[in-house]
Design brief:
The chain has twelve helices and no strands. It is mostly helical and 230 residues long.
Amino acid sequence: MNAGSSSQAHRTAMLTDAQLAPTARQILDVAEREFSLHGVEKVSLRELGSASGQRNVSAVSYHFGSREGLLGALLSRRFAQINQLRLQRLRLLTRLDKAGDPHTVIGEAFRVLADAVRHEAWGADFVRVLAQVFFDPELDFHALVPDELTEGYRMSIALVQPALQHLPPATLEDRMSRAYHHGTYALAAWLHTHVSVTPSNEAGYDTYVDDTVDFIVGGVVAPISRAAAR
């Protein structure tokens, strides 16, 4: 991703959902659905404009500048909400003196995304798009999403660090990043099979989320080998 496209992504991403023009919100809604169904790289900006009901073939470019700008706005629109919920949950753990347990901290932070799949109309589509962004070597999540929208993620690292003194800071940060990535892939994989959470499969979804938390936490807290420590 070049510097120009990253800059455009950040300028667009800084707008809140309420500040976006109705046309821009409509385009983002359609892009989230189409990227989820067909793939981020498979849907053209022209197709998105048409699917959004825009007569002007340049409508998407006008509002977002580029595909990266559109993705930045799409991700940041949702992370504005996800980040606030993570911060609320983690601050509550701190007030309840429960923030010293990595399993509790990581579980609460991850379940914000898992709960969005269950409760938000956009949750399933968003997770499928986010998994694609994490997996695509040509896309840089941190270039697309402003740092202030990942404060909850960074707080989760700070909260678990005292309990994981056996890990060098760089190793802990790398493991936490992989934990969130693998957790997102796991949710996307479940959605690939089940499409959405329904009354008939919600018990299975709960079990799957619990097991995913156990899996990603296990990776974060594992002892570090001599080779990795070097």
